[in-house]
Description:
single chain, 212 residues, six-stranded parallel β-sheet, four-stranded mixed β-sheet, 8 helices, 10 strands, globular, binds iron/sulfur cluster
Amino acid sequence: MxxxxxxxxxxxxxxLVKNLQSRHFDAYYCQTKEEALAKALELxxxxxxxxxxxxxxxxxxxxxxxxxxxxxxxxxxSAAKTQQERTxxxxxxxxxxxxxxxxxxxxLDGQMVNIDGTGNRVAATIYGPEKVLVIAxxxxxxxxxxxxxxxxxxxxxxxNQQRFMKKNPCSVTGSCADCKSESCICNQIVITxxxxxxxxxxxxxxxxxxxx
Length: 212
Ligand code: SF4
């Protein structure tokens, strides 16, 4: 039986798909992780080179494993043995056919907010890969852009920091202090408000809680 939260996500998903399309993104809404994985695999051509950077939602729907084990050329920086090799793989992602990423915040009117420490993830989203596939749970969707930025800064970033535990205030308190630490992970705050060329960035919205 459909739950109230699923119904809520379904309705907002329908609105968000239309608003993303009005900004020349491609967009699909899937109720479940399983549907989202099937849709993503339908959109990635066999043999394509596929890269990613910090794509927790793609991992949660099983897409990263499917790419690694499928007929694709995976550019997997986690396989790097040295920092230099990792950096080379991040750079190689700039030329891949399909780049997988997530969203730290989405506004219901169709804008995406992402925060990045190194910058590789937002750089590849902005320019380079032929296609960008954004996998995002409906828990990322806020009513307006201001709230989406607030979510990215005060929820997603401090949560993300708990994976790295660098010497930043949010590692200690769990809250953003708008720091200027040398190890700050919030160096780039990017709003993607429109897509050119049309359809380069494709959203797969999932009616479940995913990512941070
Ligand atoms: S305290 Fe610094 S590193 Fe932590 S979320 Fe805020 S700006 Fe980012």
